[in-house]
């Protein structure tokens, strides 16, 4: 695999916009739940993400959706997902559109 076939970090971020938090109804990227994206030679994509709360009941569904999307990207041969709660998520981490949609100002 040549490096040209690998997606960029921004391409991965854009693809992850399709993963919607079912409780909130907005993309996990817009909500600020995706903390870090790495694309490594050899086709490995690593994503560090969080959930809105420690006991989030939709966490497994979100992880499954992220994995499924990333594995469908041409050139991606390995997906590593790491969930963290450091730093804890707060509404301040949302982008401006998400804040507006949810009434945060």
Question: Top keywords for this entry?
Answer:
single chain; 105 residues; alpha+beta; GMP Synthetase, Chain A, domain 3; three-stranded mixed beta sheet; two-stranded antiparallel sheet; 3 helices; 5 strands; 22% strand
What report would you give on this structure?
This protein has a single domain, classed as Fe-S cluster assembly (FSCA) (GMP Synthetase, Chain A, domain 3), CATH 3.30.300.130. Helix content is 27%, strand content 22%. The strands form two sheets. The protein has a three-stranded mixed beta sheet with strand order 3-4-5, with helices on one face. The chain is built from three helices and five strands; from the N terminus they run αββββαβα. The radius of gyration is 14 Å and the shape is globular. With 105 residues, the chain is of the alpha+beta class.
Short description:
By secondary structure, the chain is of the alpha+beta class.
Would you spell out the secondary-structure blueprint of this structure?
Layout: H1 9-16, E1 20-21, E2 26-27, E3 34-40, E4 44-49, H2 59-71, E5 78-83, H3 96-102
Parallel strand pairs: 4-5
Antiparallel strand pairs: 1-2, 3-4
């Amino acid at each position: 695999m040549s490096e040209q076939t690998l997606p960029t970090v921004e391409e991965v971020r854009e693809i992850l916009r399709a993963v919607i938090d079912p409780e909130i109804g907005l993309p996990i990227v817009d909500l600020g739940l995706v903390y870090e994206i790495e694309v490594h030679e050899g086709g490995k994509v690593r994503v560090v993400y969080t959930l809105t709360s420690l006991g989030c009941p939709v966490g497994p569904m979100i992880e499954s959706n992220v994995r499924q999307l990333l594995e469908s990207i041409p050139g991606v041969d390995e997906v590593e997902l790491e969930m963290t709660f450091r730093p804890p998520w707060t509404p301040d981490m949302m982008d401006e559109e998400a804040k507006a949609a949810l009434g945060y100002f």
